[in-house]
């Protein structure tokens, strides 16, 4: 029996969430179903059909491996099919300077290089596969939500200059207004010239299609309940089906169970993020608010909001969800998001919303992802904990994991930031309570500090 951190409602894989992406992207073709009472054989079994699992599968299959992907829902059922579509820098909950205190400057530069290569990977895939994902936005802008946070933007610009080749541009309040980036509670911005926005489901569909073309078998409604190991071989159990495999990849990120495998237990903090989308607006409505830019944006709150105008002039607004998966908590999350949206974009307070959904992103105890072998298992591997920034990094992470398993790269190529297993949370059973308290504290700091 899988042990989960949230209530069952968070893991209902028989339907897709009511997201704008599910409506605006063509449905994925049906995939294979498990045979029921029978046995399947595969060289590599991948649990999880998001960007990470599918990217690993593609790389492995392109190099001749026999690969099968198993998803409890279907490809993209998890965060990969329901995120904000920011293909951007990110992946750690710590700043580069903070990470450098533990890992050193060179290791952090290597991590930052991998983050940039992750964006390039998605960019190259879209071009090579010739898929239209409604791409827009030249980089992203971070907005100071209080005058006291303007100094942080300058600090961030220094970080980018020190650890990366990414160009940044400081924008004062007048420059923001001039560029069509006028929002309430916004005092300055830093344009970070890396990344772009996409329809995440369209990208996912392209990745899924490439996997099928390359010979990856993808099974849907295929929840793996457990696995065991005998004489160096693995048997995975999914209902009445048994799957024999030589290697396993765990690519379950925010939807991970605490006991698949046991090592994961207590090391991850899955967190809800929620998204609202409006109906398409007219040019006059956009001008009324003063937000006409295509740039994707987020604010300087610890409990940040992320937002962007979509190519058809809808507006997407996302932010922290609750820490409970009940219908009441889902509704409360919507009310909370809407209140913040109305404060920041008062001219649109009467614009109809067409969609609201949420999903699980994933933090780790160590505030960074991990890519590598699952400790205690000789051929079980994992890549997860993208800290809410997996569009690019989970894609690259899955690919790097596959290369590491194939032996085409070594541990040095992953570096210590990504290649050091995360620790366990102290008192892991209290993670949700601790998170709830942290949210209250962060909320106060965002308001008053
Ligand atoms: C609302 C929201 C907004 C976000 N916005 C952004 C953004 O704008 N930019 C960005 O970079 N990142 C964003 N993220 C984060 C990003 O979407 C994730 O980091 C990324 O999609 C993770 O990919 P993944 O493949 O590792 O995991 P997922 O896509 O979550 O896939 C995990 C899969 O594992 C499957 N699974 C779990 N357990 C089992 C099992 N036992 N058996 C079989 N299958 C199983 C699940 O069904 C799921 O499909 C957002 C996340 C959310 C929730």
Give me a quick take on this structure.
Helix content is about 35%, strand content about 25%.
Task: Give a description of the structure.
There is one protein chain. Helix content is 34%, strand content 23%. By secondary structure, it is an alpha/beta fold. It has two domains: 213 residues, FAD/NAD(P)-binding domain (3-Layer(bba) Sandwich), CATH 3.50.50.60; 159 residues, D-Amino Acid Oxidase, Chain A, domain 2 (2-Layer Sandwich). The strands form three sheets. Strands 1, 2, 8, 9, 10, 11, 17 and 18 form an eight-stranded mixed β-sheet that branches. The protein is globular and about 65 Å long. 48% of the residues are buried. The mean pLDDT is 96. Flavin-adenine dinucleotide binds next to helix 2, strand 12, strand 16 and helix 10.
Question: What about the largest sheet?
Answer: 8 strands, mixed
The outline comes out as globular
Order of helices and strands, N to C? HEHEEHHEHEHEEHEEEEEHEEEHEEEHHH
Structural class: alpha/beta
What's the average pLDDT? Answer: 96
SSE topology:
Layout: H1 20-24, E1 38-47, H2 51-62, E2 67-70, E3 86-87, H3 96-103, H4 105-129, E4 140-144, H5 150-163, E5 168-172, H6 173-178, E6 188-192, E7 196-197, H7 200-213, E8 217-219, E9 226-230, E10 233-238, E11 241-250, E12 268-278, H8 283-289, E13 296-299, E14 305-309, E15 315-320, H9 327-344, E16 353-364, E17 370-373, E18 380-384, H10 390-406, H11 411-419, H12 431-448
Helix pairs in contact: 2-7, 2-10, 3-4, 4-10, 4-11
The chain binds flavin-adenine dinucleotide.
